[in-house]
Amino acid sequence: MPIVNLITMLFCQVGENITVTGMAVDCKAGAVVISLPDSARYYLDGIDHWKNNMVGRKLSVSGELLFRSFDVSTGEIVQTIVGDSVPFILNPQWEIVK
To answer: Organism's domain of life (predicted)?
Structure first.
């Protein structure tokens, strides 16, 4: 787990507004911002993919922090996010950083 995810989990409360600066990336599970310089991954809730050539751009993303757990112990073969505390940003708002 990247150190910033650990720091975020320890010092930020669920529901707290946060701002993450990083690179816009599309993943199978949806739009992500990968924080710089530590490469922590934050999923953007409700955003399936980046639009308007945003992939690869440096952004500042703000919103409400939420950690979600994903349980794949059903024995069924599925493609999903795996993890106990996956960080999501709810109601994300972003702007390009120059």
So the answer is: Bacteria
* CATH architecture for the domain at 3-70+79-96: Beta Barrel (2.40)
Q: Which residues contact 30 (CB under 8 A, 6 or more apart)?
A: 43, 44, 47, 48, 49
> Phi and psi dihedrals of 53, rounded to 5?
55, 40
Alpha carbons within 13 angstroms on the beta-carbon side of residue 66 total 13
Angstrom distance (rounded) from CA 1 to CA 7: 10
Measured CA to CA, the distance from residue 71 to residue 14 in angstroms comes to 19
Q: Give the pLDDT confidence of 26-83 residue by residue, as tens digits.
A: 988 889 999 988 888 899 999 999 998 999 999 999 999 988 766 656 666 555 555 5
